[in-house]
Each structure stands twice: as structure tokens, then as C-alpha cells.
Design a protein that fits this description.
single chain; mainly alpha; F1FO ATP Synthase; about 140 residues; 2 domains
Length: about 140
């Protein structure tokens, strides 16, 4: 575990140091060297992450037996209800908020109406949180 952490820190330190060196040289024809450096660093990081996931995660993760935790699906349902509702609310606020901003820029008198729609979009996350609290209350 510590060897992978040391290798990752070494790669990031070398990448930053060589980037500073190329930047301080102030030679603009170093662009191919910078691109090659980024490709090598990204390849090394991907290999480190793949090695970490392949070798170390299975040893750390242990499944709990079903007799120890009968309410595991309830916790999963609570997490999914909150998470999916939050993702949906974020998307809804993004769409409604940008449309409301465009509408208010054309007619400032409709600001109150657009705030109602943005508030309704934010309410989706609150509904998901309430559902997850209700699920956790039943466990």
C-alpha cells in the first residue's frame, strides 16, 4: 500500500517539477515535450489506479454475512433515494435556472414567477431526503 502511495507521489512530484522547469525555461518549442510528459504521467497514473483497484481493493473489501445485517437493502434504498433525487434536482435547477435567467433578462417583471419554478425544482431533493428518512425510520 505504501509503495503505491510513494510511487504516485513520486510521479506527481516529477511531473510538477518538470513542468516548472519547462515553464521557467520560457522556450515555446517545448510543447511536444510537455505533451509527451502529460501522456507519460497520465499513463502512469492510470496504471497505478488499475493496479490499486485490481490488487488492493479485493483484499480490503469484505462482504458482511446476511445474518449480521438484515437491513442492508434498506440502507441501500435510503442512499439511492437521496442520491437520485439530488441528481434529478441538480439537473432540474440547471435547466429551470438557466431558462428563468433568460426570461428575466427579457422581462424583469416575471422574476417572482421564475423563482417559484426554481423552488419547485429544488424541492425534488427535499422529497428524496424525506423518503430516505422514512425508510431509515422503518429499519
Amino acid at each position: 500500500m505504501y509503495i503505491i502511495l510513494f510511487i504516485a507521489m513520486s510521479i506527481s512530484g516529477l511531473t510538477v517539477a518538470s513542468g516548472f522547469y519547462l515553464h521557467l525555461k520560457k522556450v515555446r518549442d517545448n510543447l511536444p515535450k510537455i505533451k509527451k510528459l502529460v501522456k507519460v504521467s497520465m499513463t502512469a497514473y492510470v496504471l497505478l489506479v488499475a493496479g490499486f483497484l485490481f490488487f488492493l481493493i479485493p483484499d480490503m473489501a469484505r462482504a458482511q454475512s446476511s445474518s449480521d445485517s438484515p437491513s442492508g437493502m434498506g440502507f441501500l434504498a435510503a442512499a439511492l433515494s437521496t442520491g437520485l433525487a439530488t441528481i434529478g434536482a441538480g439537473y432540474a435547477v440547471g435547466v429551470v435556472g438557466s431558462s428563468a435567467l433568460g426570461a428575466v433578462s427579457e422581462d424583469p417583471d416575471i422574476l417572482g414567477k421564475t423563482l417559484i419554478f426554481v423552488g419547485l425544482a429544488e424541492g425534488i431533493a427535499i422529497y428524496g431526503l424525506i423518503v430516505s428518512i422514512m425508510i431509515l425510520g422503518r429499519l
